[in-house]
């Protein structure tokens, strides 16, 4: 039997508020989800597991209808979902009132702790969020009840305020597979046993790396899972090193070329490093407009040889200034302060 | 340190030119453009190297400016000097920086290492900045009184603040302030953008709230209407009930009448017994009459017939009555039922539907509202936490604070010593004409003679220049205490009258080991000759 494990789809999210692509990203998240469901249908999967945060916030009725329709297009696949910290079961949540298609099973935690599918030989357990934060390690207490040969746990969380857990405790819990959600970066915690599917699409600028879902096969040999990248776009860190000869224009050209190379569609976080000529300051506003630039940080600075500065300016304030910032580990603020002050002093010294 | 010889192998306009210098006063005479500043730069370049700037600054740096006119790939020179009783030769290949520097002690033939700081030691630890500030003195740039005073004050203040007369702390602090302002405005712009975003959400929330309220009102109305409808329906039903009852009563009355008309005695079910008794009485009477008229037998037969007939009649009427009653009833029901279904029931269904729709809409809107409120609070949270500009602003503030605090401590440590030294130099230079130079906290300078006090702004330009010279020499004395350095004076005496020049040169001859005066006029030589002060002269030719 094939099964799909996705999490943190965040339908309804519009990442990068205020940026020109924000609305489009919102639509892309829906499109990605639609494509995933089509894929699930095409591969005739037995189970489609959604480990929380299907929605970015409380789902609207019309959104649920939309999702339910999509689920109803794969009637041969059992869809099992839990609510995460984003779409938690508020008292007035539409989740509670919605009547789902026959193949959809929600583990809202009202009756049984699991749903059983004797035809698949599987039981799926899970706990839904009824509030934004849960600090109890709830997953430590949940045990499979040996109802079916394949016993799966749908879990959401893993950080301090969202149902923290100990990896080793989960590993010993006896579940055949634990489908995790909440952490947006896909990660296998125990081979073919415990894994974060990661967000289907990156939801904010910190969701670096590939994104998609997990596809699993359950057979005689047990479980095999693999990560399938599916996101339309990625956030890509773009560090560039500048030299004294780098000018605004040459920097812009290099960045445009790099972004072109790595895919025009992706979203970039530019980090400028290295040394720049004295008095040169790059215009970040222009760089932000070069394309899909999500962020541009200039960490380049004039590099000073402290030793020779102190020698050259012995007896003057510049020497004491260098001394003040020398001979110890500097904080980021201090490092910057040194450079700013040095630049100002040198500039003031020029006739 | 005494500079013995400058050997310009290939430097600027000079090629294979050697210039010998002596102890005491040296006059280097040359017209404009004859290469005086080149010699200046050569001495500094030999002692400290020619710094190659990077980037844009490279176009105007000393290295580029003095690149040899002919054969620029050869860029060398040497300098012979004596120091601590020994003779040294310093050679530089300017293209190769420190690598191309060689320092030889000619007295014992020892090769010294510039890299290891041997030259620095010979220079008594004087840095290039100090050299620029003290050893090498140019004419004041400003020519007018006020600007001259300002320049003097600037030098004094920046020297006092930073130990570096070229450093302009006010300007540095201003630059930092400007930068800070720039970041602040950047932060402001971003915050405004965020505020706009917040405003948009708030507006959306307000709009949604209004919509929800309207829907809610509608719902209330609809509910009221439904209630009213039910009330009316009930009243209607009551009325109909009453009507039906009325009808029934009327019907009954009519039926009674009808029965009474058709068959007296069989008026209704209620007086059934009466009917029977009446019938029996009737029978007896009819039988009696027949008995008297037709005889016994006939009477008996007819009586039987009558009885049977009566029985049959009774049976018929009773079933007929019952049937009629049933018919009436069904007729009644059939009439009122369609009335009900065709009128109020669908209506109720419609109001029920719209209420359900409204409730769903309201719920949907409420969910969206709470989502928006969540978004808003998240936005506000990030606004507080994520302010990258603050980091820059803090760094700039730290830089400014550090500079300020350093300048204060520099002022404290060298201020007094400097003031005393200036006063000493100026008084001896003027041959005791002035007794004291006082410099107050605001760097206002006052000169005191035996009998009166002259604020510096009222003194002549020559006096101001002389104070300036005293100041530069005083600074040099404070910094170059380990090794006395030659004093390089560049067109310093232009504004001095003859008397002042004589006393100043006299002072220099007495106090300084070596003085190198660059000039483009002959006044200095004439004054020296007249005063009988020995000197060495070098002519630069075009």
TrEMBL record, chain A:
Give any Pfam family that matches.
Metallophos
Residue ranges annotated for the Calcineurin-like phosphoesterase domain, each copy included: 1-186
Presence of keyword Iron-sulfur: no
Q: Residue span of the signal peptide, if any?
A: none
CDD domains per record: MPP_Mre11_N (cd00840)
- InterPro entries registered for this protein in UniProt: Calcineurin-like_PHP (IPR004843), DNA_Repair-Maintenance_Comp (IPR050535), Metallo-depent_PP-like (IPR029052), Mre11_N (IPR041796)
Origin superkingdom: Bacteria
**What keywords would UniProt list here?**
Hydrolase
* Name of the protein in question: Metallophosphoesterase
**Organism source for this protein?**
Blautia celeris
From TrEMBL, chain B:
Alphabetized, the UniProt keywords read: Coiled coil
| Chain segments annotated as coiled-coil in the UniProt record | 355-382
Question: Does the record bear Coiled coil in its keywords?
Answer: yes
* Residues of the YhaN AAA domain: 1-196
Q: Where is this region: Disordered?
A: 226-248, 327-346
At the top level, the lineage of the source is: Bacteria
Does Coiled coil count among this protein's keywords?
yes
| PANTHER family hit by this protein | DOUBLE-STRAND BREAK REPAIR RAD50 ATPASE, PUTATIVE-RELATED
Can you name this protein? AAA family ATPase
Q: Which species?
A: Blautia celeris
């Amino acid at each position: 039997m094939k099964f799909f494990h996705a999490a943190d789809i965040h339908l309804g999210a519009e990442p990068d508020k205020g940026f020109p692509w924000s609305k489009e990203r919102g639509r892309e998240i829906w499109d990605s989800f639609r494509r995933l469901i089509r894929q699930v249908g095409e591969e005739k999967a037995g189970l489609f597991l959604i480990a929380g945060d299907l929605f970015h916030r409380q789902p609207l009725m019309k959104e649920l209808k939309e999702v339910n329709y999509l689920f109803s297009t794969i009637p041969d696949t059992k869809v099992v979902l839990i609510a995460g910290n984003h779409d938690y079961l508020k008292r007035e949540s539409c989740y509670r009132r919605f009547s789902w298609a026959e193949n959809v099973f929600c583990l809202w935690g009202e009756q049984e702790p699991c749903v059983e599918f004797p035809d698949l030989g599987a039981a799926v357990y899970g706990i839904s969020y009824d509030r934004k934060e849960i600090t109890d390690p709830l997953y430590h207490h949940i045990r499979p009840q040996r109802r079916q040969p394949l016993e799966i746990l749908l879990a959401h969380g893993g950080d301090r305020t969202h149902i923290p857990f100990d990896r080793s405790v989960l590993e010993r819990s006896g579940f055949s597979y634990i489908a995790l959600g909440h952490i947006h970066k896909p990660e296998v915690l125990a081979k073919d046993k415990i894994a974060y599917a990661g967000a289907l699409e990156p939801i904010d600028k910190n969701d670096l790396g590939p994104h998609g879902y997990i596809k699993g096969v359950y057979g005689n040999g047990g479980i095999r899972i693999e990560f399938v990248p599916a996101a339309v776009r990625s956030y890509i860190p773009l560090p560039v090193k500048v030299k004294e000869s780098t000018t605004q224009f040459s920097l812009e050209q290099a960045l445009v070329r790099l972004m072109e190379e790595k895919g025009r569609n992706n979203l970039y976080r530019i980090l400028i490093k290295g040394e720049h000529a004295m008095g040169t300051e790059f215009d970040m506003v222009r760089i932000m407009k070069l394309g899909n630039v999500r962020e541009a940080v200039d960490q380049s600075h004039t590099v000073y040889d402290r030793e020779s500065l102190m020698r050259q300016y012995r007896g003057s304030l510049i020497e004491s200034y260098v001394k003040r910032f020398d001979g110890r580990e500097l904080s980021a603020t201090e490092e910057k302060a040194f450079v700013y002050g040095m630049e100002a002093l040198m500039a003031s010294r020029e006739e | 340190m005494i500079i013995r010889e400058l050997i310009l192998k290939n430097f600027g306009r000079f090629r294979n030119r050697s210039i010998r210098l002596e102890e005491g006063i040296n006059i280097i005479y040359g017209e404009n453009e004859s290469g005086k500043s080149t010699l200046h730069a050569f001495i500094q370049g030999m002692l400290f190297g020619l710094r190659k700037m990077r980037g844009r600054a490279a176009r105007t740096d000393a290295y580029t400016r003095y690149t040899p006119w002919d054969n620029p790939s050869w860029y060398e020179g040497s300098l012979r000097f004596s120091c601590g009783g020994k003779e040294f030769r310093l050679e530089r290949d300017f293209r190769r920086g420190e690598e191309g520097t060689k320092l030889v002690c000619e007295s014992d033939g020892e090769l010294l290492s510039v890299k290891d700081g041997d030259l620095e030691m010979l220079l008594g630890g004087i840095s290039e900045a100090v050299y620029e500030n003290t050893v090498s003195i140019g004419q004041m740039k400003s020519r007018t009184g006020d600007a001259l005073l300002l320049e003097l004050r600037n030098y004094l203040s920046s020297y006092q603040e930073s130990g570096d007369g070229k450093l302009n702390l006010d300007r540095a602090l201003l630059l930092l302030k400007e930068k800070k302002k720039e970041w602040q405005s950047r932060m402001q712009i971003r915050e405004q953008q965020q505020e706009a975003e917040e405003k948009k959400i708030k507006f959306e929330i307000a709009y949604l709230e209004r919509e929800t309220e309207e829907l809610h009102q509608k719902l209330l109305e609809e509910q009221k209407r439904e209630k009213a409808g039910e009330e009316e329906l009930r009243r209607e039903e009551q009325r109909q009930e009453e009507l039906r009852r009325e009808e029934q009563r009327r019907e009954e009355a009519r039926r009674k009448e009808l029965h009474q008309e058709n068959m007296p005695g069989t008026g209704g079910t209620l007086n059934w017994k009466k009917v029977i008794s009446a019938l029996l009485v009737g029978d007896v009477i009819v039988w009696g009459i027949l008995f008297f008229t037709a005889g016994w037998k006939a009477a008996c037969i007819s009586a039987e017939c009558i009885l049977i007939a009566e029985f049959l009649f009774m049976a018929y009427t009773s079933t007929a009555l019952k049937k009629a009653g049933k018919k009436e009833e069904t007729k009644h029901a059939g009439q009122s039922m369609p009335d009900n279904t065709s009128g109020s029931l669908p209506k109720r269904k419609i109001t029920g539907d719209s209420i359900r729709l409204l409730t769903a809409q309201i719920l949907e809107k409420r969910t969206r509202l709470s989502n928006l409120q969540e978004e808003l609070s998240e936005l506000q949270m990030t606004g507080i936490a994520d302010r990258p500009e603050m980091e820059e602003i803090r760094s700039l503030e730290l830089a400014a604070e550090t500079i300020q605090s350093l300048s204060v401590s520099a002022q404290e440590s060298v201020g007094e010593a400097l003031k005393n030294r200036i006063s000493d130099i100026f008084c001896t230079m003027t041959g005791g004409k002035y007794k004291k130079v006082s410099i107050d906290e605001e760097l206002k300078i006052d000169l005191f003679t035996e009998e009166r006090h002259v604020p510096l702004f009222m003194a002549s330009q020559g006096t101001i220049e002389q104070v300036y010279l005293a100041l530069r020499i005083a600074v040099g004395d404070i910094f170059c205490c380990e090794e006395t350095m030659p004093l390089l004076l560049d067109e310093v005496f232009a504004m001095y009258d003859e008397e002042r020049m004589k006393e100043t040169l006299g002072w220099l001859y007495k106090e300084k080991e070596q003085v190198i005066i660059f000039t483009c006029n002959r006044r200095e030589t004439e004054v020296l000759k007249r005063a009988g002060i020995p000197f060495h002269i070098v002519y630069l030719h075009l």
